[in-house]
Amino acid sequence: MTALLVFEQILNSLQYGLMLFLLAAGLTLVLGIMDMINLAHGSLYMLGAYIAASVYMATGDFVLAVAGAALGMGVVGLLLEFAVVRHLYHRDHLTQVLATFALILIFNELVRIFWGPQPLLMSVPPALSGPIELLPGLYYPTYRLLIIGVGLVLAVGLFWLVNRTRMGMWVRAGASNREMARAMGVDIRILFRILFALGAALAGIAGAFLGPIFAVQVGMGENVLTTLIVAIVIGGIGSIKGAFVGALMVGFVDTAGRAFLPLLFYHLASPDVASNLGPTLASVLIYVLMAVVLFFRPQGLFPVRT
Amino acid sequence: MIRLLPWLFIAFLGVFPLLAPGGGEDFYVSVLTKVMIYSIAATSLNLILGYGGMVSFGHAAYFGSASYALAILMREGIVSPWLLWTVPLILSVILSFFVGAIVLRTKGLYFIMITFAFAQMMYYVAISFKQYGGEDGLKAGRAHLPFLYLDDMAFYYVTLAALILSLGVLRKLLRSRFGLVLQASKENELRTIVLGYNVYSIRLIAFVISGALAGLAGMLMAQHTQFVTPYHLSWHFSGHLIMMVILGGAGRFWGGVLGATVLSGIEELFQNLTIHWQLFVGVFMLAVAFFGQGGLIRFVGGRK
Fold it and tell me: Which of A93, A109, A284 sits opposite B278 (nearest CB)?
């Protein structure tokens, strides 16, 4: 176990955590302000990846692919909110769960119809496929560094939006007390539509960037949704700061866990135990983290409403 | 008269295999066995969701873990029917107790998401054990009783007995003081607490009973199909169970049975129509979510 490996895993965690944050931010705001659970958020991510992959395969232009995914998902988000989601705000959680779960099935099948059941291959753009030398002897894939960069920029952008703009003020007001915010004149419905579309666009961007790393296939949304939910629960529903911290924690624990836990077991126990227990424990590490956090803080680390 | 309909259904289930000419109708016996197993599972969820107000999105965990327990026991060479029939159930009870003890401290959105997360955790644990099938699943078998060899017909009746038992348990519970307080806690939690009832304990007990019944269903499923699949631990399956309960009528006695039967029928129907049947199931689910409050049982009448 070298310092190089540790550093590389830290960067990988940062990359994964930042992308999770892009997804978590959208979901937690929906949850926090409108008290609405949206299971289909993972599907928005999946759709974004598919759009980006298609644009990239058609034009070879990666920037265009990302922009296409962002814009496309923004539009899809607006349409979805108008057609389906806005009817769910005043319904109970059970109905929301059922309806958004139904949306997942629908989206999955629609993707299968339009793009076929085979996964799409999206390769890292050639210009970005080489490694960059960060420090003497320390190489890191350029593409992942780009993701970290974009993630940080978007994160800063979101923070600025939520904390330094009028709209952000409305968002925070709505998250902490929706009725009062409405009474004070905030048009929650329009705000919400914009937020939902923004969340969808962010999900699309995350999908576009992660497409070359993970496979672009039906069901990729569900895998990420589980991790997202853990991140949001840890961070505290409704809080962007919570989503950020939660996503980074989950990113770190998951990446580092998968990389180092099997190694740890290999040193401590016999090889068969290590090869079985190691990966198993690594895959559930984030749930253990969630359980631990909830034990001390049942509402997450940074709850918006106490 | 309408009140007798569900009982007629049970009677129908009782005589169907005897009426059906042997041989060609095996398929239907198998389908009905599956429907009965899902009915048990949906009824168990109905107890906590419909009557208790706990939206558990992780119910598949108790179903699937019992299935896996059975398959793993068989894989390890255990053949004693005493062990095979009881260990998976005990496992479900223990699991639902520990998970329930933790998750029942939360409520609302958190409860939904945490039950979801715990079930997913078990899903990932199950698929990570390569020697127990990983993502492909694991072969199981029938746990033949010393006095009864479980061919398809015998197994059908064992399942029917289990279904009647589950419904009996539900009825007994609902009419007891325990059941009344459980329903009260759904209607007005604060008031129930103020009246002096320990709502947490009552909910936990209900959660464990529900988990045990789900485990019973899971164990039966593993024996029925002689195969276990991680799907039965997934949140997809949890979502399906919720769908069954809502479709049939949450908080209605026959809601689980009705929902399981109708949903299974609808899925069979769509599967025969098109390869993209999941789209139609999704649309159907959306429609039920928006318009189906009260469940199909509204049209049939009957009591709670």
Answer: A109
